[in-house]
Fold:
Amino acid sequence: MAKFLVTGGAGFIGGNFLHIMVNKYPNDQYVCIDALTYAGNMETLAPIMKKPNFKFVHENICNREAVFKLFEEEKFDYVINFAAESHVDRSIENPEIFLRTNILGTQVLMDACREYGIKRYHQVSTDEVYGDLPLDRPDLFFHEDTPIHTSSPYSASKASADLLVLAYHRTFKLPVTISRCSNNYGPYHFPEKLIPLMIQKALRNEPLPVYGKGENVRDWLYVGDHCTAIDLVVRHGRDGEVYNIGGHNERTNLEVVKTILKALGKPETLITYVKDRPGHDLRYAMDPTKIETELGWKPEHNFDTGIQATIKWNLENQEWLKHVESGEYMNWLERQYK
Ligand code: NAD
Ligand code: TYD
Structure:
C-alpha cells in the first residue's frame, strides 16, 4: 500500500487522473489538495468522493504551514503536482498568480518533501516549456534535451518550476521526475480551452472564435493517455529524468474546429477569425520515444477516436458544462461550509 498526494485534483487532468487511479489501485490511498480556484470543480470529483481510498482537502499549495502539517499527518510516499494556473490567455492578462502558484507553490511542496521524506516527487509539466517550432519544418520535434525557450508568462512559470525541480534533485538529492505533455483534451475539460469551448459554441450556433488564421498546430493527446503515462513515470521512471509525452497527433486549430463542426452537423460558416493571441506559439510537436522505449507507454486513443469520445462526453454531460458556464459549480464551497 502506498499513499499519494495529488495536488490540483479538482481540475481537468488531475481529476481524470484520480478517477482512473482511485479505481485501479484500491489498496493505495489518494489524498487530493486543491485551492478550488475558478478551474477547480468539486462536481468533477463527485464520482470518487465516497471511495474509501480517497480524501479531499481544500487547501492552497502556497500555504507552507498547512502543507507541512498535512505532510506530517499523512506521511506521503508519492507527491504528484498537477496544481497550476494553466490558461495562456489568462497569464497574458495577469501573470502574477501564475508565478505564485506555479513556481512558489512547487517550492513549498518540494520543501515539505525534503522535510518529511518521500519516495518520489513528480512534476506535471508541459511541452510549452520548449517554446515553438516553425510551421514549415514538420521534421522537427521537441526532445527532452531541446533547450527551454518560453513564450508566455504561463510557459515561463512552468519552465521555472521545472528548473527548480531539477535543482532540488541535484542539490538536495530529492527523488524527482518531470513529465512534459502536449495539449490534452477529454472529459471534464474547462470550457475556456479550445476544444470544449468550440463544442459548446457550436451546439448553441454561436460564432467559433479562431485566433489569427487558425494555422497554429497543437499535438493533441487524450487525457486518459496522459494519466497512464504519469502513473508509469511515477512508479517506474528514473530519478532526475524528464519524460516527454505525446502521441503524434498534430492538427491545425482550423482542422480541430472543422472536425467538431462536422461531427455536430454544424456549418463551417460559424468559424470567425479573431485577433491573434500575442506571442502565439506556432507549432508544438513531441517526440515520445523515451517514454515508449524505456517504460513501454503507448496511447490508447488517436485524435480521430479521442475527439469522437470527447464530443460524446460533452453531449452527455451538458449539466456539468452548464454548471461551469453559469458559475453554479462554485457554490460547492458555500454549500459545504454553511
Ligand atoms: P486546470 O486549470 O484544469 O486545473 C488546475 C487545478 O489546480 C484546479 O483544480 C485549481 O483549483 C488547482 N489550483 C490552482 N492553483 C492552486 C493552488 N495554489 N493550490 C492548490 N490548487 C490549485 O489545469 P489542467 O489542464 O488540469 O492542468 C494540470 C497540470 O497539467 C498543470 O500543471 C498544467 O500546467 C499541466 N499540463 C496541462 C496540459 C493541458 O493541455 N491542459 C498539457 C500539459 C501539461
Ligand atoms: P488552448 O486550448 O488555450 O491551449 P494552449 O494555448 O495551451 O495550446 O489553445 C489551443 C490553441 O487554440 C491555441 O493555438 C490557441 C487557439 N485558440 C483559438 O484559436 N481560439 C480560442 O478561443 C482559444 C481558447 C484557443
